[in-house]
Design a protein that fits this description.
- By secondary structure, the protein is an alpha/beta fold.
- The chain has a domain at 397-490.
- It is built from 21 helices and 16 strands.
- Strands 6-3-2-13-14 form a five-stranded parallel β-sheet. It has a three-stranded mixed β-sheet with strand order 1-16-15.
- α11 (234-249) packs antiparallel against α13 and α19 packs antiparallel against α20 (447-475).
């Protein structure tokens, strides 16, 4: 295995953010991943509930078997140690691959902080079990090598879920069938066959969607000391009651700060807004049944047709905190009110929406952590590398277009322009001759017959040209198939394949990875 790094960014804002430009960092409390900022954040006072937070994480993780590194980090967390954190929804069997890459980023940055700043930060992964977007997590994509095309594998595609996904009990039989489809498409590698049996056991052992996801993540990263935080747990909601109360009491200030800050951020940096929301409260209720955004009108809170006074809503919070959850505006705020964070790692969109929320943090008197972009990975099997070299294609940001241009050139080079021109010439000649027939025709009943005959000939000539082009492609099928496979497997639709494909397509563990340091470049992993 070899590792290469490449500047792969296509986003001007992210480029400037990574270069720590002052005009951007001012929206992130002037913090970046350097000695000065690390010392500043470490020097902040720790939350008073940190020991309780560590206890509930420990209680949740015990069923999966806590490793020694995890136990050590739980003790560090309980003592007020700061964390490096990232989060994501519970994608089907940890899909797509960037979920693992986000976790790897958290672990790598925590190790870097120890090496560079002599501080034992605790790596934490936040499972966004409160999210209810089932259609975003219920499927994955695998490349079908036999038919050389992308395949979508979905768990119960016609199912509709309105509750937070963390409260959904999966169908064990269907989940196993979904697993078998994925493994079959990924191939018959020995590591996959071993993994299949292990995951089948996990499916039987667990009940809820996020429990299974937690078990899979735990199995991969337990020896790295990763702490896994299930945000939808009732115990978490009980701990968050005071924080939700602050958000309800200050919902007007939060909304005004969000609108003001988003406008300032996007207009100053000339980028479109990332956060789109229809609420002015930025909280959900009904997480256990039908998750619905709260709104406030005429002094009353409304959700799913139910009206609450502020007192009634606070009483519901007191008795049933598990039905409350955050939306995109208040989730970062809740994270920082819960954890003593040193570094938050997010994708491009997450980095932007934290910038949009800078005024929200200010109005709530909550400190931001150091915000950094997660690491990105691409996998280059030796077969694909050799294939790209054969066709003189260079992997990079423009690879998808480069492959398109190659395909068009291959087809065009083999087309005989004289043949195509002759078909066009015959078509134009036929049009002229049929016009002459219409001029000579004096019998009305013949008009439709002549016109039908003309359309028939045009259809045949069009078919002749299309069939000729198809046959040219067919003669070049192997070459075109190779280039299209490269295009689909390396940069599908112009996006990094980590955003599309299942990680098992490339790997089943990270133990074979060489030591890595944090980088904003794309990490290219060359494999056999």
């Amino acid at each position: 295995m070899e590792i290469e790094c490449m500047n792969f960014s296509k986003d001007d804002f992210i480029d400037k953010f990574n270069q720590q430009e002052e005009d951007i960092l001012k929206y992130y409390q002037n913090l970046s991943l350097n000695q000065k900022s690390v010392e500043e954040v470490i020097g902040r006072p720790a939350h008073g509930h940190t020991a309780a937070l560590a206890d509930l994480i420990r209680n949740d993780m015990e069923r999966y078997g806590i490793s020694e590194p995890q136990e050590r980090n739980l003790k560090q967390l309980a003592g007020g140690r700061r964390v490096v954190i990232g989060g994501q929804q519970a994608g089907l069997f940890m899909s797509p691959a960037y979920i693992l890459h986000k976790i790897m980023s958290v672990i790598i940055v925590a190790k870097d902080v120890k090496a560079k700043y002599d501080y034992d930060a605790v790596p934490v992964f936040w499972i966004a079990g409160e999210d209810h977007d089932y259609e975003e997590v219920n499927h994955t994509f695998v490349y079908d090598s036999m038919h050389r095309k992308r395949r979508k594998v979905t768990y119960k595609p016609n199912l509709r879920i309105n509750m937070s996904i963390g409260f959904y009990e999966y169908d064990k039989k269907v989940m196993k069938e979904t697993l078998h489809k994925i493994i079959e498409l990924c191939g018959d590698r020995e590591d996959l066959l071993i993994l299949k049996g292990k995951v089948e056991t996990m499916i039987e052992r667990h009940t809820y969607w996020t429990e299974l996801f937690h078990a899979l993540v735990h199995d991969v990263f337990k020896d790295e000391g990763l702490l896994i935080f299930n945000s939808h747990l009732p115990e978490v909601r009980a701990l968050e009651k005071g924080m939700f109360r602050r958000m309800i009491e200050s919902h007007g200030d939060i909304h005004e700060a969000f609108m003001r800050g988003q406008k300032d951020f996007t207009e100053a940096l000339r980028i479109p807004p990332v956060i789109q929301t229809d609420t002015n409260v930025h909280l959900f209720t009904g997480s256990t049944t039908s998750r619905t955004l709260l709104s406030n009108e005429d002094g009353h809170f409304t959700a799913d047709g139910v009206r609450y006074t502020k007192g009634e809503l606070l009483e519901l919070l007191e008795t049933s905190p598990e039905v409350f959850s955050n939306n995109v505006v208040t989730r970062p705020l809740m994270q920082e009110m819960l954890f003593n964070t040193l570094v938050f790692l997010g994708g491009n969109a997450e980095v932007k929406y934290w910038g949009e929320l800078h005024e929200v943090f200010k109005v709530m008197d909550v400190d931001m952590p150091i915000v950094s972009k997660r690491m990105e990975f691409a996998y280059m099997p030796s077969r694909l590398e050799k294939m790209a070299s054969k066709y003189q294609l260079l992997f990079g940001p423009g690879f998808h277009q480069q492959a398109d241009d190659y395909i068009n050139a291959v087809v065009q080079d083999d087309i005989n322009p004289e043949f195509v021109n002759k078909v066009h010439e015959i078509t134009e000649s036929a049009k002229k001759h049929y016009d002459d027939l219409h001029d000579l025709n004096s019998q009305e009943f013949m008009t439709d017959i002549v016109e039908a005959n003309f359309r028939h000939h045009l259809k045949q000539l069009d078919y002749l040209e299309r069939r000729y082009r198809t046959e040219v492609k067919r003669q070049k099928r192997k070459e075109l198939g190779d280039v299209k496979e490269l295009q689909e497997r390396l940069l599908p639709g112009g996006a990094l394949h980590e955003r599309i494909y299942h990680p098992w397509q490339y790997m089943t563990g990270i133990s074979c990875f060489p030591p890595l340091s944090y980088t904003t470049d794309l990490v290219i992993v060359k494999t056999l």
